[in-house]
Amino acid sequence: MEIVSSRKITTFLMFEGNAEDAMTFYISLFDDAEVVSISRYGAAGPGKEGSVQHATFALAGEQFMCIDSPVKHDFTFTPAVSLFVQCQDEAELDRLFAALAEQGAVLMPLGEYGFSPKFGWVNDRFGVSWQLNLPA
């Protein structure tokens, strides 16, 4: 497997078995989104056959990489690093917040926080942290 990216720095998300579910979910949320490439583990492993060995996907013009790690880890995602989304309008912010919060955890409920007329922060059902902002 060769990892190719035209970007110097790319956000890399490591999952333990649900990388494709997460990627598919994220792509469903944004109009300008696609799977750029995907390779899967074969019968020889080391990961579960058919799971994501490496994938690249794009959301709103930004590329992300993800994998299903064949190794179990004692860590997962943390809100200390989050994906910050500048929403086009209130409807987009509300839609994204509702979808990402479903089966996830709200860290900051939707509201006006002084720095933004409307802002919300959630961990989605996969543990990835998202800050959603409506610019002033």
UniProtKB/TrEMBL annotation:
Q: What is this protein called?
A: 3-demethylubiquinone-9 3-methyltransferase (Glyoxalase superfamily)
Report the transmembrane regions from the record.
none
Q: Which Gene3D superfamilies match?
A: 3.30.720.100, 3.30.720.110
Domain PhnB-like residues, every copy: 8-132
Xref: InterPro entries? 3_dmu_93_MTrfase, Glyas_Bleomycin-R_OHBP_Dase, MTase_demethylubiq_bac, PhnB-like
What Pfam families does the record tag this protein with?
A: 3-dmu-9_3-mt
Q: Which PANTHER family match?
A: PHNB-LIKE DOMAIN-CONTAINING PROTEIN, PROTEIN YJDN-RELATED
